[in-house]
Amino acid sequence: MEGSTQDNVISALKEKYEDQILHMDTPYNFLTISLKKEKIVEIIQYLYNHPDTKLQYLTTLCGIHYPELNQIAVMYQLHNLATNTRVRLKIFLSAENPVTPTITPIFSGANWLERETYDFYGVNFVGHPNLKRILNVEDMIIFPLRKEYPLEDQRREDKNDTMFGR
């Protein structure tokens, strides 16, 4: 088979990692696959090398906080530039201790994306060559994009909530 399509990605994953798939969906025609976290690096490497997928470009990597589940997802978007096939992979980590291996050996560009995800969500990418804050100050003790922090100072008295539809 030449090239890559969403069906090729699904077939390739089911061929070797069907037991790792938690959920598949295609919101807005964008294949999204939730996976067990334990083999994520192995799966990404497999999709990179597989002749029917060749997902060799990392479009983005970010965190998503799900406070109602007490989890942080790490979302990887991979792309086959030749066939314009994209896939979104998600793994879910405990919000108390979000830890997953780095993918910098596969994609060197993941370096800054993983640092940003660490900086804002607290995800520890084990094996990362330089995991430290990238935008916030080093001594910051919180991870500001987690939804557990209020968006504004609740003690403010100088604003009129009716102006904001409250």
TrEMBL record:
Subcellular location: Cell membrane
Domain of life: Bacteria
EC primary class: translocase
Swiss-Prot/TrEMBL keywords: Cell membrane, Membrane, NAD, Quinone, Translocase, Transport
Annotated InterPro entries: NADH_DH_suC (IPR010218), NADH_quin_OxRdtase_su_C/D-like (IPR037232), NADH_UbQ_OxRdtase_30kDa_su (IPR001268), NADH_UbQ_OxRdtase_CS (IPR020396)
Catalytic activity line of the entry: a quinone + NADH + 5 H(+)(in) = a quinol + NAD(+) + 4 H(+)(out)
Ranges for domain NADH:ubiquinone oxidoreductase 30kDa subunit: 34-154
PROSITE patterns: COMPLEX1_30K
Bilayer topology annotation: Peripheral membrane protein
Signal peptide residues on this chain, from the entry's feature table: none
Record has Oxidoreductase as a keyword: no
EC number: 7.1.1.-
Function comment: NDH-1 shuttles electrons from NADH, via FMN and iron-sulfur (Fe-S) centers, to quinones in the respiratory chain. The immediate electron acceptor for the enzyme in this species is believed to be a menaquinone. Couples the redox reaction to proton translocation (for every two electrons transferred, four hydrogen ions are translocated across the cytoplasmic membrane), and thus conserves the redox energy in a proton gradient.
Protein family (similarity comment): Belongs to the complex I 30 kDa subunit family.
Subunit structure: NDH-1 is composed of 14 different subunits. Subunits NuoB, C, D, E, F, and G constitute the peripheral sector of the complex.
Listed name of the protein: NADH-quinone oxidoreductase subunit C
